[in-house]
Amino acid sequence: MRIEQKGGAAKMIEIEKLQLYYGEFQALKNIRLSIPERSITAFIGPSGCGKSTLLRTLNRMNDSIPGVRIEGRVELQGKDIYSADTEVESLRKRVGMVFQQPNPFPKSIYDNVAYGPRLHGKLKKADLDELVERSLRAASLWEEVKDNLKKSALGLSGGQQQRLCIARALAVEPEVLLMDESTSALDPISTTKIEELTRELSRSYTIVMVTHNMHQAARISDRTVFFLNGEVVEAADTQMLFSSPVDQRTEDYISGRFG
Ligand SMILES: Nc1ncnc2c1ncn2[C@@H]1O[C@H](COP(=O)(O)OP(=O)(O)OP(=O)(O)O)[C@@H](O)[C@H]1O
After folding, report:
1. DSSP 3-state assignment of 180?
2. What is the CATH number of the domain that holds 160?
3. pTM score, two decimals?
4. Is position 124 within any domain?
5. Ligand 1 lining (C-beta closer than 6 Å)
């Protein structure tokens, strides 16, 4: 097993001896992994290997699933997010998430982006206006929607809706953005836009993405983690992992022999 750390990059997330059980079934086995800040880390591997489960542990989205048991540590900037004094709501403010299907609220474009800040008590109209614009600009959507902010978000195309969901996530000013197959429901042009946007965002945010598409991981991520049967087989700089994998199972997977 190769677990290489990018030289010098500060760690944002540190996972130590993580085990996750759904009832009797162990879905994650002894995961040890560092995620560097301001970069893109991609999780790849065949269906059912635990990618989404691990992603969800990073903002405690598994907490609400009955029968889930977790052992080990997940540290965000050195603090265990599973400790008793962690407030899940403030954790989720720091670690935002974008899902596979764009899921805007049935509200206006403006209200979608303002939703999180309002929830967290930012209510002054001028501040909100500024934050909504900044978030939409950061999500590369502002120019397309600036004259229609009061219109329903449901009238946007799928790709625009996904960028709106990214703007909504950015509006609460997170440090980490989790992306679970966030382009798999989109057409190729929208996918390219989101990939370019993700690269741009990785200059300011730590991004962890799950993808079924290993070409996407190779194209845009800085680091890639290959999973199999709930274990990390290999984690390395993306270029290294795809050009000279150390583990035979990684080589078999990236050369399309299974999965
Ligand atoms: N809520 C749940 N209850 C019980 N088992 C679950 C639950 N969610 C996932 N699992 C099981 O845990 C394992 C890992 O699932 P997970 O969704 O994390 O894999 P994945 O690698 O993201 O798969 P995919 O690429 O198909 O989305 C699978 O065997 C799955 O059946």
Report:
1. strand
2. 3.40.50.300
3. 0.94
4. yes
5. 22, 25, 27, 45, 47-53, 65, 212
